[in-house]
User: What shape does this take?
Amino acid sequence: MSQNVPTPQIYGTLLELTRELKDFADTSGLKAAFDVEGNAYIEGNGFVEQLKKENLVRNHELKAEIRGIIAKHCPRVQPSYKQ
Assistant: This one.
């Protein structure tokens, strides 16, 4: 794997977003994947999206891209409101 891929940052951002959005989208099947060429991917139920290399540099850009992938591919769930 390439040294240029911030693996811990990608895993951390994905974990943070899955926890943050679990009440609004089905994020249970999401995982990060990497190939030998240094590309990073978000995989889910029935899809694989490659992360743009230019977004791997800044955390807020990475977070926005992963959030967009979740919005595009993950089904919405009805939030449960606690009384």
The two ends are 48 Å apart (CA to CA). The mean pLDDT is 88. Strands lie at 31-34, 40-44, 47-50. The CA atoms of residues 17 and 67 lie 7 Å apart.
